[in-house]
Amino acid sequence: EEGAPGRRGERERSEEPPVERGPGAAFHMFLLMEDLLDKLKLLSYEEEALRRHNMRPLSRHYFALPTNPGEQFFIFCTLAAWLISKAGHPFEQPQEYDDPNAVISNVLSELRSF
Questions:
Q1: Are the beta carbons of 60 and 27 closer than 8 angstroms?
Q2: Is residue 29 within 8 Å of residue 64, measured between CB atoms?
Q3: What phi and psi values does residue 84 have, to the nearest 5 degrees?
Q4: What is the pTM of this model?
Q5: Bias category Basic and acidic residues: which stretches (predicted)?
Q6: DSSP notation for 61-77
Q7: Distance between alpha carbon 91 and the CA centroid of its chain, in Å?
Q8: Model pLDDT for residues 74-112, shown as the tens digit of each residue
Q9: Is-contact 78 49, C-beta < 8 A?
Q10: Among 57, 61, 35, 48, residue whose Cα is nearest residue 93
Q11: Spatial separation of the C-alpha atoms in residues 21 and 26, rounded to whole Å
Q12: CA-to-CA distance for 103 and 114, rounded, in angstroms?
C-alpha cells in the first residue's frame, strides 16, 4: 500500500487539521453582500430591475441573513434574470410560483452558455 501511487498523498491530505478561520470570518458574508449591493447600484438596478417588478430596494444585508427564504430566492432569481438580460442574453423572467429547481437549472444553463 505504501508504494501505491497517490495513496499516501490522499491519506496525508485527509489527516490535515481543518483550516482555522479568523474571528472576522463570520462577517465575511456581510461584506460580500455590501459589495454586491454597491455593484448592483452601479448597474442602476433600482431604476431598471426594482421599479419594473415593483420591488423595494434591498438592505445592505438582505442575502446575508436568512429571513424569508422564499422571497429571497425569488428576488435572487429576478436579479439573476435581469443581469443575464443586461449582459445581452434574452432571458425570461421567472415567476414567483415557478419550480425552484427548474428556475435554477435555467439560470445555470444560461450562465454556462456565456
A1: no
A2: yes
A3: -65, -45
A4: 0.72
A5: 1-19
A6: TTTTS-S-HHHHHHHHH
A7: 17
A8: 999 999 999 999 999 988 888 888 899 999 999 999 999
A9: yes
A10: 48
A11: 9
A12: 17
Which residue carries 425552484 as its cell? 100
CA 59 to centroid of chain Cα atoms: 16
Where do we find the cell 458574508?
29
- Counted residue by residue, the chain has a size of 114
Type of residue at 87: A
Among all chains, which residue has been given the C-alpha cell 453582500?
A: 33
Give the separation between CA 75 and CA 53, rounded to whole angstroms.
Answer: 10
Whether 74 and 95 have beta carbons less than 8 Å apart is answered as no
Whether residue 52 contacts residue 75, with contact meaning beta carbons closer than 8 Å, is answered with no
Mean pLDDT to the nearest integer, 21-37: 85
Distance CA 21, CA 52 (A): 41
The pLDDT of residue 65 is 85
Q: How confident is the model at residue 1 (pLDDT cuts 50, 70, 90)?
A: very low
The residue among 90, 97, 89, 83 whose CA lies nearest residue 49 is 83
Q: Which three cell numbers stand for residue 90?
A: 434574452
